[in-house]
Amino acid sequence: MEGGRRGSAAGAGTIVNLAGASILLVALLLCSCPTSTEAYDVLDPNGNITIRWDIKQWTPDGYVAAVTIYNYQKYRHIQAPGWTLGWKWSKKEVIWSMVGAQATEQGDCSKFKDNIPHCCKKDPSVVDLLPGAPYNMQVTNCCKGGVLNSWVQDPDNHAASFQISVGRSGTSNKTVRAPKNFTLVAPGPGYTCEYTKMVRPTKFVSPDGRRTTQAMVTWQSTCTYSQFLSQNSPTCCVSLSSFYNDTIVNCPTCTCGCQNNITQPGSCVEGDSPYLASAINGPGRDTLTPLVQCTSHMCPIRVHWHVKLNYKEYWRVKITITNFNYRMNYSQWNLVVQHPNFENLTQIFSFNYKGLVPYGAINDTGMLWGIKYYNDLLMEAGPMGNVQSELLFRKDKSTFTFQKGWAFPRRVYFNGDNCVMPPPDAYPWLPNASPTVKSRFLIPHAFFWRTTSSSTRSAQEAKQSRATRAPTWAALGRKGYKSGGGIMHSSPLKYTFRGNAQPCFSVKVSWSFRSSTSDCTFPSGPASISRSL
Ligand SMILES: *[C@@H]1O[C@H](CO)[C@@H](O)[C@H](O)[C@H]1NC(C)=O
Ligand SMILES: *[C@@H]1O[C@H](CO)[C@@H](O)[C@H](O)[C@H]1NC(C)=O
Ligand SMILES: *[C@@H]1O[C@H](CO)[C@@H](O)[C@H](O)[C@H]1NC(C)=O
Ligand SMILES: *[C@@H]1O[C@H](CO)[C@@H](O)[C@H](O)[C@H]1NC(C)=O
Ligand SMILES: *[C@@H]1O[C@H](CO)[C@@H](O)[C@H](O)[C@H]1NC(C)=O
Ligand SMILES: *[C@@H]1O[C@H](CO)[C@@H](O)[C@H](O)[C@H]1NC(C)=O
Ligand SMILES: *[C@@H]1O[C@H](CO)[C@@H](O)[C@H](O)[C@H]1NC(C)=O
Ligand SMILES: *[C@@H]1O[C@H](CO)[C@@H](O)[C@H](O)[C@H]1NC(C)=O
C-alpha cells in the first residue's frame, strides 16, 4: 500500500501484548469527532468570499461598474473549471458589454435593433475569460479561467475582477437598484450568498499613490461555504500507520460510498480494468462526478499519516495524499492538519507550510500545499496520483508521547473539506508503554539529510554539524535524489526555509565514485545534501 511503508520497524514484531493500548483517550474521541456541517468553520471562522460591485461612472442609460470577487478563505480555493457568478436584476437592466468576463447566455435581446446588448437575461450567469484572452478584453485580476486561489496559499491571486456596462438601470444613486440574490458556483454548489447591501464607497488609490478616487455607489454581498450543501457524502478520508505497530489502519469502510455492483454498476473502476479508458470517457465525463478507483472507502482522496521515526529530540511523520479519482487533476491542492506538535514543527520537506492560528496564541494547525511547478498538481488516479512530504517535529517533553494515539492528527482537511478519520479505538497501539521499550525505538541522532548509500554516511555525519546550524532549511533534492529517508524528488534543487521553497543562491556539485554532493549556499550559510547514484 502506498504511503503505508514501514519506517524503521525496529523490533516491532517482537513486542507482544498490549493492554496499554486499551486506553484511547476520551479527549481524543472528542477532538476527532467528525464533520461539522454548518457553514461555520472553526479553523477559519471568518472565511468568506466577498463580491463587491463598485459603480465607477454613470452612462446615459446606466453605469459602468467594476465587480471584484475576493476569496477571504484561508484554505478553500476555486479550481478549474472555475467560478460562475449569477444574480437577479432588480429592474429591467441589460448588460451592454463586459471586459474580463462574459455572460454564458445572451438571452432574448429581440427588442433591440441597433445596438445589441451582451446579455438580456433577467438572471445572468457570468464566467471568467480564459488565460490568453485578447488584450482589449482584459482587466486586472481577470482571465484566469475562473481559478481563485486561497488567501494564505497565494495572496496575490485571491481576487478576480471584471468590468460591466449596465443599461436601463437608472443613472443616479437614487434610481439604481442593487443586483439581488447572488449565486456562486465554484464549480459545484456549496456557497450561500447573503443579500446585497450598500456599503461605504470603495476608495481607489492611483498606482503612484498620489491620488484617491472613489466609487459612486458600492454594493457588497458575502458568500459562505458549507460542506453539507456541497456534497452529501464525504470526499476524503485518513488512514494511519506507525513504525511501532505493523497494523495499517485503513480509512473506514464505505466512508465516501460503498461498492455496489447491483444498484450502482460502474460506481468505481479497477485500476487494471481494460475498460478504464472507456469508463473515464464514458457518461459523466463533463460533469464533476468523480470516477473513483475501487477501494473499500471509495473516496476520491486519501491522506495517509505514517509515524515514521523516533529520534531523541525529534520525531518524524510522512504524509502521503493519494488521488483515486480518474477524472480530476487537483491543481493548487492544499491540506490543513491539526496536531498539537505543529507548534514545534522544525522542518518540512517538499511542501510549503504556513501555520494557521485559529485561536490566538495556539498554533496547532498548519496548512500544507505543493510547491509551484513541482508538486502543486495532484494528478488523476494512477501511478502519478500522489504527493508526499515528511515533517520533522521537535519534541516538547511536557506533551510528547506515542501513547493513546497522540502522534496522529486531530483533524485533516483536503481543499477545505473535512477528511473522515478512523475511529480512535482503531488507532495503531503502542506495543508497550514502559520507557525501556520506548528507548528501543529511539534513533540516537537526527540525520537531517539521509541517503540510502552507506558510503556517504560519514560525509553525512560530518555535515550534520553544519546542518544543525541552520535547522530550518530543508533539502528538496533533484531527480534521483532521495531525501527525507525515502522521498524521490524530480525537481531542480531547492530548499525550504520557514516553510517556503527557496532556490539556492548557488549550487556546486562534486562527483565521486558512488555519489555526488551538491553544495547549496543561501543567506545563512552553506548546507549540503548528498545524492546516491
Ligand atoms: C469576510 O472576510 C473578511 C476578511 O477576513 C472580513 O474582514 C469580513 O468581516 C468577512 N465578512 C463576513 C461577513 O464575515
Ligand atoms: C446619493 O448621493 C448623495 C450625494 O452624494 C448623498 O447625499 C445621498 O445620501 C446618496 N443617496 C444614497 C441613497 O446613497
Ligand atoms: C432572493 O432571495 C430572497 C431571500 O434571500 C428570497 O426571499 C427571494 O425569493 C429571492 N428572489 C428570487 C427572485 O429568487
Ligand atoms: C463488483 O464487480 C467486480 C467485477 O465485476 C468484482 O470484481 C467485485 O468483486 C464486485 N464487487 C462487489 C462488492 O460485489
Ligand atoms: C490531467 O493532466 C494530464 C497531464 O496534463 C492530462 O493528460 C490529463 O488528461 C488530465 N486529466 C484530467 C482528468 O483532466
Ligand atoms: C507558532 O507561533 C509562534 C509565535 O506566534 C511562532 O514564533 C512560531 O514560528 C509558530 N510555529 C509554527 C510552526 O508556525
Ligand atoms: C514548542 O513551542 C512552544 C510554543 O511556541 C514553546 O513554548 C516550547 O518551548 C517549544 N518546545 C520546544 C521543545 O521547542
Ligand atoms: C497494533 O495496533 C492494533 C490496533 O490498531 C492492535 O490491535 C494490535 O494488537 C497492535 N499490535 C501490536 C504488536 O501491538
Automatic annotation (TrEMBL):
Signal sequence residues: 1-39
Q: Which InterPro entries would you find in this protein's record?
A: COB_C, COBRA_pln
Q: What is the name of the protein in this document?
A: COBRA C-terminal domain-containing protein
Pfam families assigned to the protein according to its UniProt record, in alphabetical order: COB_C, COBRA
COBRA C-terminal domain segment(s): 235-428
Entry keyword Ribosomal protein: no
Q: Tell me where on the tree of life, at the top rank, the source sits.
A: Eukaryota
* Keyword Glycoprotein found: yes
The record, for PANTHER family, names: COBRA-LIKE PROTEIN 4, PROTEIN COBRA
One GO-annotated biological process of the protein: cellulose microfibril organization
Q: Which organism is it from?
A: Colocasia esculenta (Wild taro)
The UniProt keywords, alphabetically, are:
Glycoprotein, Signal
List the PROSITE patterns: PROKAR_LIPOPROTEIN (PS51257)
Q: Which family does it belong to?
A: Belongs to the COBRA family.
The record's GO CC annotations read: plasma membrane
